[in-house]
Every structure is written in structure tokens, then in C-alpha cells.
Amino acid sequence: MTDALGPKPPRSRARLWVATLLLAIYAGFVAVVTLWPNPNDLEFGGISDRVLKVLYRFGVPEWFGFDEIEFTANIGMFIPLGFFLGLALPRRAWWLALFLVPGYSGFIEWTQATSLESRVSSMLDVFANTAGGYIGILLAMTMRAMIYARDRRIIARAIWERDAEILRAREHPLPQQPGRVQQPGRPVQQQTWHEPDAATRVFEQRPTWQDPRDAPTERLPF
Predict the structure, then answer these.
(1) pLDDT tens digit string along 76-104?
(2) Where is the composition biased (Basic and acidic residues) (predicted)?
(3) 19-54 burial, b if ≥16 CB within 10 A, otherwise e?
(4) What value, to the nearest 5°, has the Cα angle with vertex 199 and ends 198 and 201?
């Protein structure tokens, strides 16, 4: 059976390689941001102040301060991480992301508590990072499910059109050419015959005329 079908087409690895590369790059970026020895060098305080001023201008209540924006930033920072992780993992192993995201966040907080004196670790940060990672995983799984459903519809449509063409060929077979001897034991190959369009009849027929004024004319449908 497999010999008749030919070699099995290889699986596409583009999603795996691209998602894994982006995951490694972004995980390194998160590690640099969260494990930098002196957070003042990153100037997050000045950025947070400017963001808060913009939010206050748009009517955000004043109780929304630095702690709230830091909590929100921790959620947003881990959304891409969870998204890339959800794309990189196989479909049957997506549940590993539920443990990898909090594990990576816990490793960051543990390193801050044991090795970085200028950093302050908090379980609230682990909760925020995990929530953001789970949001990213949900987005990745939703996108993969939508693409999978779309591909199934495309394949089903292609199979239907192929089967419909085979049925039309069986209902309207071409007559056997005169002088063609059918070899015994071999089935007759049936082909479909389509009426050529006007342009084909005019431009692809063999010219049997010499004078251009005797050329056949036909009104083209354009």
C-alpha cells in the first residue's frame, strides 16, 4: 500500500523551529530584565512615572500607582513567553506549559532572593507572571485550533473536488480513438472532454488559410 502511494511527505517543522527560536530569545530577554543586578540601570522608574502620567490624563483613578502598574507589567511581560511556549510544544504535550511557566517565574524570584541584594522577590510576582503566561498559552492554543480547523476544511474541500471530477469523468468518458488497440488485461483509461472556450478555438487551431482575410472570426467573450 505504501509503495503505491509513494514516499510519505515529511512533516513541516517551520512552526517548531520559529517558535522555539522566538521562545529562547524572549526567555533570555526576560532573564536579563528580571535578573539585572542593579534595576536602576534599566530606568524602569522613570518609564513607570511617564506611563502613570499618561494614564492619569485619560482618567485612570489616582489609586492606580506604581505597585499596580508593576503588577500589570509582570502579567504583560509573560504573555509572549506563554504564547511562544504554547506554539513550540507538541499538541499532546501542551500541558507541560502549565508547569514550565510558574517554574520559570519561581526560578527568577528564587534567584532574586538568594543572589541579588538589590532585588526584592515576591510571591505576588510569581502569581502575576503565571497569570500572564497562562493567557499567552490560551492565545496560542486558540490560534492552533483555528488553523487546524481551517486546514481540515481545505483538505476536505480538495478531496470533494477530486471525487467530483472522477465522477464526471466516469459519466462522460471520451470515445476510444480509432486504430488504438486495447491491450488485454488493462483497464480503459477514461478521460473527460471539455468544450474549448472561444479564445482557444481561435488561437490554438491549426491555420488552414493563406490569406488573412479568409481567417475564421468569432466573437470573444471579453
Answers:
(1) 999 999 999 999 998 888 889 999 999 99
(2) 211-222
(3) bbebbeebeeebeeebeeeebeeeebeeeeeeebee
(4) 65
The answer to whether 27 and 81 have CB atoms below 8 angstroms apart is: yes
User: What Cα–Cα distance (Å) separates residue 188 from each residue in 5, 52, 181?
Assistant: 21, 79, 11
Q: What is the DSSP string of 112-168?
A: HHHH-TT----HHHHHHHHHHHHHHHHHHHHHHHHHHHHHHHHHHHHHHHHHHHHHH
Q: What distance separates the 2 farthest-apart alpha carbons in the chain?
A: 98
Rounded alpha-carbon distances, angstroms, from residue 198 to 58, 201, 204, 205, 221: 65, 5, 10, 11, 7
Contacts for 76 with CB less than 8 Å, ≥ 6 apart: 132
C-alpha cell of residue 17: 523551529
36 phi and psi, to 5 degrees? -65, 130
List, for residues 195-218, the tens digit of each pLDDT value: 555 445 544 454 554 555 555 554
Please tell me the pTM assigned to this model: 0.66
